[in-house]
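Q: Predict the bound structure with magnesium ion.
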Amino acid sequence: MSGDKNMKKTNPNYLSARESRAISRRNRKITREFERQNKRKNVPKREYLTEMKDNNNVVEFDNLNTYFFTDVGTVKAVNGVSFDVPLGKTVGIVGESGCGKSVTSLSLMKLVQRPQGQIVEGEIRFNAGDQVYNIAKTPIKEMYNIRGNNISMIFQEPMTSLNPVFKIGTQVDEVIALHSLDIFDSSDEVKKSSDGKVKMTKEGKSKVKKRTMEMLDLVGIADSEKVYNMYPHELSGGMRQRVMIAMSIACNPRLIIADEPTTALDVTIQAQILDILKELKDKLNSSIMLITHDLGVIAGMADYVVVMYAGRIVEKGTVEEVFKSPSHPYTIGLMAARPGVKKDANRLYSIPGKVPNPVDMPDYCYFRDRCEKRFDACYGEYPGEIQLSPTHFVSCYLYDEGASKNE
Ligand SMILES: Nc1ncnc2c1ncn2[C@@H]1O[C@H](COP(=O)(O)OP(=O)(O)OP(=O)(O)O)[C@@H](O)[C@H]1O
Ligand code: SF4
Ligand SMILES: [Mg+2]
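A: Predicted complex:
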């Protein structure tokens, strides 16, 4: 017991076993209630169908809050995030590791790790064309149709998404058979059995293979017949990522989520993959949510940029606005930390300090302890969002005319 007390004195984040048990009991109670809601059957459509605020958007995140209820406390991974993804545009999401980029996109797919991860507040409106879903309220069963048919996802490491024991052709064929129903003349040509396996007639199979080859050609795989018969480990990282892209566009998705799609690749391959994504986006008129640490990738690909810090958006705007006049001290720091040809490669700028503990976020500006520009007003509550132009927003007291600037 006295050991416990000493640990507590030296480490403010220390939890005794008793405290941890109490937190865990409390959080299990909360997640049980969310799960009860998630597992409801026959939810009427009016509970999860909604309207877009602007029909020119494919997604509208509106005050999204996604938390993880863990045994050591509640992690507010996404904490009041609002931004739009316009139709046919690319929105880049940038921010350092752990700031909530992936959890934002997983919330949209309803793939946040349950039961501890839950959307606790806010709306994600997804425009599927014929109807608009409020994803937070959409039953999991309905999500199976949305994923793959309307939204697809490309991950950082394709090896973890491709099944190592099946040939590339078999894997792409399966996705096409499940999602490209337009290629079949009748429903007899393809059938999904109760165990989830796809069964096809000979005609069905040859139509699927033809579409698979077209897709592999489209993503720049030269020898598609050979690749069709190869296993994932026989391909290079760049080739595997091309296969993943082929799978993700097979259903003409309205939205492609690319989570660090090129981080594992070398620079020349990275450029090729990004070019393919850009080309396909224009061909399919899809939108892209592009998640990356790399501002260079954002500059080359995105129309809009969202900068996240510790679960919140600190700045958002068009790519020109954020790159030409970065306004939040964190964004300015990110820009300065970018390697450039003119800079001395041995003296890269890094933002001093670290992100606050996610289970115990302060009630003031999360960036304050690292901010060189902090002044009196920053000792107040978390800054609200300030509009700098019709499309440019920043959450920082420096732009709040009412805030006192006496240092
Ligand atoms: N399954 C989980 N259980 C508990 N906490 C989680 C879980 N998944 C994510 N988190 C927490 O949520 C926060 C946001 O994580 P997220 O994966 O969205 O970060 P990210 O911005 O994508 O980072 P990276 O750039 O490293 O991929 C982090 O603090 C992370 O520790
Ligand atoms: S609100 Fe203050 S502490 Fe926070 S980023 Fe702006 S200047 Fe820095
Ligand atoms: Mg991530």
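A: The chain has 13 helices and 15 strands.
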